[in-house]
DNA sequence: GATTAGGTTTTG
């Protein structure tokens, strides 16, 4: 900014007399002017707000010879520019005519065009730099009677600008071509410059200490109190504010506007506000501000050093370096005042019972309670020091996820929003970031049932009420995702998404838009058919048989003990059974030891075992049999008689195929409740119903591979297959659905069931996956979403047909590749 | 085209 301060009192003396001879008469008297130095704009820099604060635009037609023009401005387009008349001694005079631009206000050109007389250096400058068609803003003028009104039919007044208090601001004409709308600099004397700004009006901002009743002003200030817009009894919404500035005056401001988006976007005390065209009014002995015609408002964050980003819904608004400076100056000033509130925004973790506070949070779910109350479930990523009250609402009334009513981690706050706020709350979408103003932390003493002691059982649960009314600024508003406070909040919330990176995305994404906004899903479909995704509720309602693609979360699963999910089933008779436990198997082995007769036709190796003192077993003979000692595949198959389960396992770890047998003269297999074959750590079972055991001869030499299938076939055993069977309860935003995971469980977990039965690591992998899909102690918001292919089919159960759903063609993704355990 | 509200705690 460039400003020239000239001596305070200027006496119009000799050269003023010369003007009496000029075309325009200036009145001829010697006057004292208010101190008002010349201010010229340089390089678009802002003017001194202290000075501009005193300026007030006046339409040309409203000027009268008696108008007090102190602090007034006039704006108009140059329609005539006269010659520069030299008065000697470097004194000049120039006459020009400007016309009011707003023709609606002044249809009569007689009253909208006015003569302007410029004197001295300003006249010379004007001559050099102002052209016809330019739009000017004049300040520091005086009004006199126009001596030429009869001749030129212009305004009865003229404007006189001279010397130190006069300012001329030049704007580009709006009729100029786009090429010439680029701002151009014009050099004024004394090395000063005027910037031509493209169709941008200059605003002058008034200090709150300089407000007189009944004027329209522009204001820059800091917000020290505010209410969110509320519906009036009239046609508009009303925002009630109290603002202050460097003058330390606090001024009330009432904003009426029928459009919510045109109300000031104030998020917290300390925000900076710029008001255009508010009128001053005396109310209860104090000046207050009220919206007037053409009102507009822009707000800014009040934090020193943060980016100066105007908050406005207006598509065109003036914002330049001047505004930047004004905001920064107010921020600096406010930082040293104690404006900032007694009840700041506090995290849930610092909330005290009975306190009123502002909460910045994310909306998880909402549900109407009754006509004057809505429940909001929110979190801010901090854990409240007091147990949080849970408010029960029918799950199907929630928008968001009904299971959010679980409050496992004491992170979800229940907020009851009453009366006038219900309407605002109704518009909110889960995932939105919010600020709730003047929230009331209401302690609810709840005594735990079943304990007589009254003292120790009083637990204070905190519920939160946004009471009706707007006292103390009560209300709520959505915060934009890019606001500094939301950015801070997101950082906190993100620390909770370690388990599942998609968590926040999920809540920012309505479930129905999954396909348009891809979300990291914990499972993926492997099917090659294409069907449109449906909700679980839609899947339930459709006919059979069907294949569905759904997105859902895992609500619960069974069995919780994963080894219980291991099953044996017969491909022939379809019978599914549990894998016998070791006690059962051991019992079969012990029973079989009684049948230790000879085995005709087999090569034998006998091992005599003495009675072990530790156990109850008598002394025994353990016999290894083979079809032949040396030849072919037969040597790979060992029949073991008289061993315990433990011994069989031990021997199986050293020999490839061990078949436990017994004999009452003829060798035969054990009861098929026990494995008929041990291969390493794997145990194979046969179907009691479908096997036709026959140990008559060695396995055929045509067998290329000696494995469970060929051994089973050679022994007449119908091999049972291992499988994993789980019941998964899925849930989406519509309903929950019980499904089975069976046919495609192995690809789902990336393990083979037989491994899961024999191998600790494989079991752990299944366990890990289930814990990822359904973390122990988690609530629904923490659980990942699954992309699933479901098939629906009908089964008959107790004479009744029932629809079953099975997860098919689906595999879990492995976000963290399985770590190979280090050697120990 | 004027009017609305004019900071100041529900009582759930």
From TrEMBL:
GO cellular component entries: chromosome, telomeric region; nucleoplasm
Question: Which stretches are annotated as coiled coil?
Answer: none
Subcellular location(s) per record: Chromosome, Telomere; Nucleus
Q: Which residues form the Telomeric single stranded DNA binding POT1/Cdc13 domain?
A: 205-335
What the entry lists under SMART domains is as follows:
Telo_bind (SM00976)
Say where the protein is mainly found: nucleus
Q: Which Gene3D superfamilies match?
A: Nucleic acid-binding proteins
- The residues the entry assigns to the signal sequence are 1-27
Keyword field contains DNA-binding:
yes
User: Can you provide one Gene Ontology molecular function annotated for this UniProt record?
Assistant: DNA binding
| InterPro entries in UniProt | NA-bd_OB-fold, POT1, POT1_C_insert, POT1PC, Telomer_end-bd_POT1/Cdc13
The record, for CDD domains, names: hPOT1_OB1_like (cd04497), hPOT1_OB2 (cd04498)
Q: Which UniProt keywords apply?
A: Chromosome, DNA-binding, Nucleus, Signal, Telomere
One Pfam family matching this protein: POT1_C_insert
The entry assigns this protein to a family as follows: Belongs to the telombin family.
- Write the protein's name: Protection of telomeres protein 1
Q: Please name the source species.
A: Umbra pygmaea (Eastern mudminnow)
Lineage, opening ranks: Eukaryota, Metazoa, Chordata, Craniata, Vertebrata
